[in-house]
Automatic annotation (TrEMBL):
Signal peptide: none annotated. Keywords: Ubiquinone. Pfam families: Methyltransf_11. SUPFAM superfamilies: S-adenosyl-L-methionine-dependent methyltransferases. Residues 20-108 form the Methyltransferase type domain. InterPro entries: Methyltransf_11, SAM-dependent_MTases_sf. GO terms for molecular function: S-adenosylmethionine-dependent methyltransferase activity. It comes from Methylobacterium gregans. This is Ubiquinone biosynthesis O-methyltransferase, mitochondrial.
Amino acid sequence: MDSLSLILETFAPIDGRRILDIGCGSGVLAKALSAQGARVTGIDPGEAAIRDAGRCAPTARFERASAEALPFSDGSFDGAVMLNALHHVPEPGAALAEAARVVGPNHLVVVVEPLAEGSFFAALRPIEDETAIRAAAQAAIAAAVASGALACLRDVTFERHETFADLGAFLGRVTAVDPAREDAIAADPEGIRAAFEAAAARVEGGYSLTQPLRAHVLVAAR
């Protein structure tokens, strides 16, 4: 299983569906969903991300906005996706409430989040320790379900495997997500190298890192 397969399966048939990509980043998911016929709108708080997303997925629509205050009316979409994004939101509970609002009753919200475990997490941790924010994202999902605002239809954990030619390729990957990480890398290059080499498995073509992901398929309450 992978994230895209899960999302396509959840919204099948996805052709023509209005999908909101919350925290769209550079537009990779929006491009993939648009290629399957979805009518995708992406939001991200970053100006550079919105610019890059527009180039990556020219048939989708993008707006700069925060997940906690979506600029859309109630029930504007057939579904919403938050892929590796909820833990970056300062108020994850508010973001889930907004996602439920804009899809409306009986529509689905897919949330895929990295867990604070796995070799990828171990290699990233000296650069940015996301233990607390990843836990907060899981707690927000649990709270939304407990409150009745969202119901959980599916809860599944699977692994993402990535291969990097060398440390430089890994650092390029994690700084593309957040350029501010470059300061931490510059502050402790040897410690970061040691953590990467301790966590990564040697494979043909370089180094392999594994990140467990937890996916929730949620439905907005009536």
